[in-house]
Write a structure and sequence with these properties.
- The strands form four sheets. Strands 3, 6, 8, 9, 10, 11, 12, 16 and 17 form a nine-stranded antiparallel beta sheet that branches.
- The chain has two helices and 18 strands.
- It is elongated, with a radius of gyration of 26 Å.
- It has helices at 17-32, 36-42, and strands at residues 56-63, 71-74, 84-85, 87-89, 95-97, 99-108, 113-127, 145-154, 161-162, 170-174, 177-183, 192-196, 198-203, 208-214, 223-231, 239-256, 264-268, 281-295.
- It is 8% helix and 45% strand.
- It is mainly beta.
- It has one domain (56-295).
């Protein structure tokens, strides 16, 4: 890369006309050396992010395949330790696990950078056996409930673990509540994405304020949630992977242990979500996108 130095100028000295002219000549000479090959060899652009470039160790993406493919996921107990696997179209009218295969086993060395991004489109949340209003009948909405999507990886496609800095749900007691929980921290929830279950909003069409509706309430209220996971180890044993997948659990609630300072938790509320005789909650997803980029660190 062409380099321009400022050694001609010394702090505290008076700048002369000759030194100034020499500097302009230096700038003109060095600028003339810049061309597309020079810039490409010494900088980062789209060429370097291509899968065949030397700084990219691996990359890939996976979707639900068909734009119109949808899948319904029900709330359940123990969804933190036994979550649903996000599904995709199998090409024959059915569904199968959505798995991103990088192509071969990869090793994450110290100072490598591994980034994974995902987006999910929520098209409907329902409660079978109840009406459009979540507060009717025998159902009472628990406060602050949400679904969770997080990232897992595998070396062989059959044995899966949560990615680094995404902890496991364990049976925990916090105040009066004992259930599967996950402590909220930088080392436990780095790959966890919440999706609100229900939202308070004003329904202008009915003139009724502050009613808790299932969301989306209408056909035009689809929305997308997205998140990312980042991993850059600097010490420790090298890790390996080949596959990524997204999993979904719920219903969850936030809680804390009441200590000073309090420890916050994501608590599995699936077993107590619906009263007897009323079906569990459900969330329907449509377009799901998952991609990964592994950059060489050394």
């Amino acid at each position: 890369m062409a380099t321009i130095l400022n050694s001609d100028f010394v702090a505290g000295n008076t700048a002369t006309v000759a030194d100034t002219n020499a500097k302009f000549t230096d700038v003109a000479t060095k600028t003339a050396l810049l061309d597309s090959e020079n810039v490409r060899s010494e900088s980062i652009d789209l060429w370097h992010l291509d899968g065949t470039a030397s700084m990219v160790k691996a990359s890939g993406r996976q979707t639900t395949e068909l734009a119109a493919f949808t899948h319904n996921y029900l709330s359940k107990a123990n969804s933190g330790t036994a979550p649903h696997v996000i599904q995709k179209s199998d090409g024959s009218g059915g569904n199968t696990n959505m798995v991103l295969d990088i192509g071969q086993l990869q090793t994450v060395k110290n100072y490598d950078v591994l980034r994974v991004y995902w987006n999910v489109e929520v098209i409907q949340q329902t409660l079978a056996g109840d009406s459009d209003l979540y507060t009717t009948g025998s159902y009472s909405q628990p406060s602050g409930t949400f679904w969770g999507v997080w990232l897992q990886w595998s070396t062989n496609g059959s044995s899966w673990t949560n990615v680094p800095n995404q902890g496991d749900f364990v049976n925990t007691t916090a105040g009066p509540l004992t259930t599967e929980m996950l402590a909220v921290s930088n080392t436990q929830t780095k790959a966890f994405m919440p999706i609100p279950h229900c939202l308070f909003y004003v329904d202008k069409s009915s003139g009724t304020d502050n009613i808790l509706y299932k969301y989306p309430h209408g056909s035009n209220e689809k929305y997308t949630c997205g998140s990312a996971w980042f991993h850059r180890p600097t010490t420790g044993a090298e890790l390996q992977y080949r596959y990524f997948r997204l999993v979904l659990g719920g219903i969850f609630q936030s809680t804390n242990n009441g200590a000073t300072p309090p420890v916050s938790y994501i608590a599995d509320f699936g077993s107590g979500f619906a009263p007897v005789g009323v079906a569990d909650a459900a969330i329907q997803l449509q377009r799901v996108y998952l991609c990964a980029l592994h950059l060489r660190g050394s």
